[in-house]
Fold:
Amino acid sequence: MNIILSNSSTLPIYEQIKIAIKEAIFSNELKEEEMLPSVRAMANELKISFLTVKRAYDELEQEGYIKTLPGKGSFVSPKNLELIKEEKLKEIQCYIEKIYDISKISNISEEEIKELFKMIFEEEI
Structure:
C-alpha cells in the first residue's frame, strides 16, 4: 500500500491516511484480515509522528474498517457491505447536491437532469 500525503491539502494528515486506507479496502488492494503496517512502521515510512498514524488507526477502528489485537497488530476487518454501501451513498448524495445547485443557478429543469441520468445509465447497459 502506497500512501501519498499532500502538504497542500486542506485535510489533516491523519484524515489523508484514513482516506487512503479506506480506498485500499474498497478497491481490494487491502484484503480482509490483512495486517496493516504497525503504527511506528507507517509513521517512519511517511516521516510523520506515530501519534498521527495512531489517530488514523483509532478512527478507522471506531468506524469498523480495521481491528486491532493487542500485541499482534491491526488488521482489515471483514467487509461490512452495508457500511461500504452507506459510505458510497453518502458520496453520491454530495455529488447530487452539487448537480442540484448547478441546475438551479443555470435554470436547468429537473426533466433535463433526469434525461441526462437516463442517457448515462442506458450507456452503461
In short: The beta strands are 66-69, 73-76. Residues 13-76 form a domain with the Arc Repressor Mutant, subunit A fold (CATH 1.10.10.10). The longest helix spans residues 81-105. The first strand starts at residue 66 and ends at 69.
